[in-house]
Amino acid sequence: MVCHKGITTNSILGEALKISIIKTNNFKPWTQHDARIIAVNKSRGEKLICSDIDHILTKELIEFVLNSNYDVMKFQRRFGILDESGDLKTDRKTMIEYGADADRINRRGCRIPPPGNVFAITKKLLLYLESKTGRFWHTLKRMARNSKIKFCRTDDRPLIYMFPVGRYCGGIDADPLGLFHGLSRKTEEYRDAERRAGAR
Predict the structure, then answer these.
(1) Containing structural domain, residue 33
(2) Angle at 50 between CA 152 and CA 161, to 5 degrees
(3) Same domain, 11 and 64
(4) Is 0.85 topped by the overall pTM?
């Protein structure tokens, strides 16, 4: 888990970047919930961006979040990679070279649906939602319907980029170039969903 402030290191662009890498000390396969709890309690800022390790946050996205008055926002998502020089590449040819399914790219371009666990949110709201164990998105949607929070409109959403991995590259655990972890996404919840889909 990576969150703001702490160890000084050099980024791929050679700029100073302060980060803290904090262990959750939880050895379950997937611990996003635990990571969010730790991050929100250690953070100093009023806004947080929750993301996966295979996603790329641009300067424009971060500035949008900082300057917006939304309580929560999801992002438009596209395929993208950082090359050896740290430059963002989003063209179709490069995405296919990095493992994106060529047929899908040719049919739909580099657009992919936004995931549920990548979003920006105010610290105050995240603390409240995390207190509602197991009801995170249910509570959030109810608050949005009742106009209790400001939710980013679709046409306002900034772009976030994801390396070509997972279901868009031939299978839910696909990592064509071996860039990330080998932890399987085929959890019991995933297998249950697959069985229910098969039953229909």
Answers:
(1) 1-43
(2) 75
(3) no
(4) no
